[in-house]
């Protein structure tokens, strides 16, 4: 049995029983931790043939776990029109015009990250500007949050969307004064009308881009992701795993529409597998930026607009109940306070049903209830989250990126938004992630946002600083908290004997460095199962 001994380190284990150590030993065969303690204690476990690695006093923490990411979508961002820097509809159209000039006629032009909230007029864009920019190409551009799709006339024609097309039950087709589609589709029931006719991406390109993104995760110290995507991503991950090229542990969270199919998928779900299927994702609503988050009261300045429930309430309840009985993780996207209430109603009903149907002594290994985002929630529903044991899966960079639109669209309600410290103090479990490609997946930037409550790239004052987390709490959310959210706390999240040897080596002591410099702390190395997958030591 080969052993790797990491010595002379400053190791924060995130294990309450042994919170600090100088060294650790990892079995390279199983990838599991054999010992954690002083140099002498670990050397005694290693024996004469162990590989010795001198950490030279550098800080080690458990590998970062991104509990909410869309990796293939992140990978494709570099290949498509990126409108993040555009300040107007016209600027986006110019990018499309430039792409059309080098794209064969008839081929799709896709892109993302346009944000009307950053434009001076704040208006929804129209198909007319895209028609002028690319008359010979169908165009489909997702908004920054991914819940709006801006299209041109050619795309509408291919999708057979016209004045007679009814709005879907849980989405909307924005229209002009004559009733014709204006060029913007809201939420998945509407956007899929176009996505269903887009030419599928090239498999080889998808593979290459995914490999590149996995390497970027390793450079950021990320050793596990909860990837919220569909069967295309699952198949790519499976192939990369089979060829020994995965290099990051992946837990898939699949669309709710695949619930019945999950038991037939050929994934072993072993405790040490690089690839697992954890559960399902349910959309309860839209987003703040698109003003489609489901609200208990209207958006400011938009009387009567309480957003969109993305799934009928009864269907939500039925889906949560079935997934509960299958012992699956259930992740529910809930940004608005009405969405959170509907989600919690479904969870509470499922728990009651389970008590009536099953022997409560039978353990559930994988069942976890999660609310994704939890950006605005009523105080009484926060208390319900605590009582029901529901995890808050949060993405702290949203708090600093959304500060202006939260004040604009929620008015005084924004003061209780992104309430991370309140949740933590109440005992609600926190799991942290990125929601990339919407925002950055760099854990150090996200920990900075969680603890300082501002974007490290700006000099604006902290936003709602009373909701800032401590560095220890934020680090816990990216390690043990995220592992718990994936029902993997017995194997990940802390540097504990018997757990997987996944760790990050940082240049500076993350618990002692000035908080203002957390985002500048460099990842020196990433360790997966005791093996170096990035950097040097």
Notable traits:
22% strand; six-stranded mixed beta sheet; globular; single chain; alpha/beta; 537 residues; 17 helices; eight-stranded parallel beta sheet
Q: How is this structure best described in words?
A:
The chain has 537 residues and is of the alpha/beta class. The chain is 31% helix and 22% strand. It is built from 17 helices and 24 strands. It has an eight-stranded parallel β-sheet. A six-stranded mixed β-sheet has the order 3-2-7-22-23-24, covered by helices on one side. It has a six-stranded mixed β-sheet with strand order 9-10-11-12-14-13, sandwiched between helices. α9 packs across α10 (337-357). The chain is globular and about 80 Å long. The model has no long low-confidence stretch (mean pLDDT 94). It comes from Dictyobacter formicarum.
Provide a short characterization of the protein structure.
With 537 residues, the protein is α/β, with parallel strands linked by helices. Helices cover 31% and strands 22% of the residues.
């Amino acid at each position: 049995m080969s052993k790797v001994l990491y010595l002379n380190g400053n190791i924060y284990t995130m294990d309450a029983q042994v919170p600090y150590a100088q060294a650790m030993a990892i079995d390279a065969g199983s990838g599991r931790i054999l010992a954690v303690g002083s140099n002498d204690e670990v050397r005694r476990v290693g024996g004469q043939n162990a590989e010795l690695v001198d950490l030279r006093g550098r800080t080690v923490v458990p590998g970062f776990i991104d509990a909410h990411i869309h990796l293939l979508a992140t990978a494709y961002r570099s290949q498509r029109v990126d409108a993040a820097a555009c300040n107007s509809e016209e600027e986006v159209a110019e990018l499309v015009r430039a792409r059309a000039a080098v794209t064969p006629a008839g081929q799709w032009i896709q892109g993302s990250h346009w944000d009307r909230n950053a434009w001076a007029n704040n208006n929804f864009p129209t198909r007319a500007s895209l028609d002028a920019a690319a008359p010979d190409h169908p165009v489909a551009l997702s908004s920054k949050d991914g819940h709006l799709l801006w299209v041109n006339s050619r795309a509408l024609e291919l999708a057979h969307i016209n004045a007679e097309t009814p709005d879907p039950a849980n989405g909307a087709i924005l229209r002009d004064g004559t009733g014709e589609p204006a060029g913007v589709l809201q939420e998945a029931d509407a956007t899929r009308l176009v996505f269903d006719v887009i030419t599928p991406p090239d498999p080889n390109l998808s593979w290459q881009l995914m490999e590149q993104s996995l390497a970027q995760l390793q450079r950021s110290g990320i050793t596990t992701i909860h990837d919220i995507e569909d069967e295309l991503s699952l198949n790519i991950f499976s192939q990369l795993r089979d060829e020994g090229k995965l290099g990051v542990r992946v837990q898939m969270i699949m669309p709710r529409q695949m619930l019945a199919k999950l038991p037939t998928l050929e994934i072993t779900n072993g405790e040490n597998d690089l690839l697992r299927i954890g559960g399902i994702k349910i959309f309860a609503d839209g987003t703040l930026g698109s003003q489609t988050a489901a609200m208990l009261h209207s958006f400011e300045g938009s009387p009567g607009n309480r957003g969109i429930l993305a799934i009928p309430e009864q269907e939500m309840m039925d889906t949560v109940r079935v997934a509960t009985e299958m012992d699956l993780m259930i992740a529910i996207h809930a940004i608005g306070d009405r969405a959170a209430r509907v989600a919690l109603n479904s969870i509470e009903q499922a728990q009651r049903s389970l008590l009536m149907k099953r022997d409560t002594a039978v353990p559930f290994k994988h069942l976890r209830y999660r609310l994704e985002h939890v950006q605005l929630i009523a105080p009484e529903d926060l208390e319900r989250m605590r009582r029901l044991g529901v995890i808050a899966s949060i993405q702290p960079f949203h708090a600093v990126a959304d500060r202006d639109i939260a004040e604009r669209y929620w008015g005084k309600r924004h003061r209780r938004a992104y309430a991370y410290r309140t949740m933590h103090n109440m005992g609600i479990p926190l799991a942290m992630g990125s929601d990339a490609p919407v925002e950055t997946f760099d854990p150090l930037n996200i920990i900075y946002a969680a603890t300082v409550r501002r974007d490290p790239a700006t000099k604006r004052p902290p936003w709602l600083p009373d909701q800032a987390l401590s560095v220890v709490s934020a680090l816990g959310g990216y390690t043990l908290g995220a592992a718990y959210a994936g029902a993997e706390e017995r194997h990940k999240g802390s540097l504990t004997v018997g757990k997987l040897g996944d760790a990050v080596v940082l240049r500076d002591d993350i618990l002692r460095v000035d908080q203002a410099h957390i985002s500048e702390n460099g990842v020196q190395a990433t360790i997966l199962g005791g093996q170096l997958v990035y950097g040097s030591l």
